[in-house]
């Protein structure tokens, strides 16, 4: 029996992650003392590579005269930049340009008198970076069930921006509900194009394959979204971090396997998963 393996065209690194990793490794070559507040992206393999280059991970900014602070792909609050400069850090900014664009939109909306509403995961680094650009407190909504109509009545006009890796369908439902309570509501769809492309593919692949494998870190928001979408369409959807998580029993009585990977998953990880699946297929065929 032949089992087909179909890998999504959009699987793996997006532009922002590639750019951040390149900036991080180039900075490590040029500077001897580089630090970052947290992980450069949400993937353990990438983090190991970055730490292996000599970059250190820190929890807070102390005084420095010769250290370089690497701003991660998810961006950072304005206060982080101010603190780093005041404490003597040189700053290298690896924020994804699409995230920087969200920052600019949010600041412009606030300057024009709009209450800023962010649709996204409340504790995610990217969301914290977005709200950290603003002078006034933003309202962060992480799901349609968390919307408080009484709170919305306070806003005469509001502008919505979205964490770049959110689910477009869920986002639209939230915006539709917000529009019922806020008369003057502007919606900026800031879900990035790579995310939308991945989500468009994942709405088709689970229907065309008997089994789906989603590759990415459990800390990756965009990978989580891909898994949720796939699982809703195909119950035989499995979220793995590496080839070691694969199980032989998954591939029994399966004719086709669909594979995709989150935006921060390296190609070498995906290739190793495909290679291992081929070995497992031989065992069940």
What is the CATH homologous superfamily assignment of the largest domain? Answer: 4-hydroxy-3-methylbut-2-enyl diphosphate reductase, catalytic domain
One letter per element, helices H and strands E, the order comes to: EHEHEEHEHEHEHEHEHHEHEEH
Q: State the end-to-end CA separation.
A: 6 Å
Question: Unreliable segments (pLDDT under 50, ≥5 consecutive)?
Answer: none
So how many helices? 11
Rg estimate, integer Å: 21 Å
Total of domains: 3
Average pLDDT works out at: 95
The CATH topology of the largest domain comes to: Cobalt-precorrin-4 Transmethylase, domain 1
What does the overall shape look like?
flat
Strand fraction equals 15-25%
Number of DSSP-assigned strands: 12
Structural class: alpha/beta
Overall helicity:
40-55%
Topology:
Elements: E1 4-7, H1 15-30, E2 34-37, H2 44-52, E3 56-58, E4 68-71, H3 78-86, E5 90-93, H4 97-111, E6 115-119, H5 125-131, E7 139-141, H6 149-152, E8 157-162, H7 168-179, E9 184-187, H8 193-202, H9 205-208, E10 211-215, H10 221-233, E11 237-240, E12 256-261, H11 267-284
Parallel strand pairs: 1-12, 2-3, 2-4, 4-5, 6-7, 6-8, 8-9, 10-11, 10-12
Helix pairs in contact: 4-5, 8-10
């Amino acid at each position: 029996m032949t089992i087909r393996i179909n890998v999504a065209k959009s699987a793996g690194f997006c532009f922002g992650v590639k750019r951040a990793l390149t900036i991080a490794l180039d900075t490590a070559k040029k500077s001897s003392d580089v630090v970052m507040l947290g992980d450069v992206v949400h993937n353990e393999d990438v983090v190991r590579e970055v730490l292996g280059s000599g970059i250190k991970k820190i929890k807070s900014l102390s005084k420095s005269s010769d250290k370089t602070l690497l701003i991660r792909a998810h961006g950072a609050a304005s206060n982080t930049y101010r603190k780093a400069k005041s404490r003597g850090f040189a700053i290298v900014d690896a924020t994804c340009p699409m995230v920087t664009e969200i920052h600019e939109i949010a600041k412009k909306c606030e300057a024009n008198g709009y209450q800023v509403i962010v649709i996204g995961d409340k504790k995610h680094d990217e969301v914290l970076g977005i709200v950290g650009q603003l002078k006034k407190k933003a309202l962060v909504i992480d799901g349609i069930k968390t919307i408080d109509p009484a709170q919305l009545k306070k806003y005469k006009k509001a502008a919505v921006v979205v964490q770049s890796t959110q689910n477009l369908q869920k986002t639209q439902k939230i915006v539709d509900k917000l529009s019922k309570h806020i008369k003057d509501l502007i919606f900026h769809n800031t879900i990035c194009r790579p995310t939308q492309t991945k989500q468009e593919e994942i709405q088709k692949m689970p229907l065309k394959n008997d089994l789906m494998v989603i590759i990415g870190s459990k800390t990756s928001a965009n990978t989580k979204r891909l898994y949720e979408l796939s699982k809703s369409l195909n119950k035989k959807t499995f979220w793995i971090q590496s080839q070691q998580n694969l199980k032989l029993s998954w591939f029994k009585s399966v004719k086709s396997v669909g594979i995709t990977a989150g935006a921060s998953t390296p190609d070498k990880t995906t290739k190793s998963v495909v290679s291992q699946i081929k070995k497992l297929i031989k065992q069940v065929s």
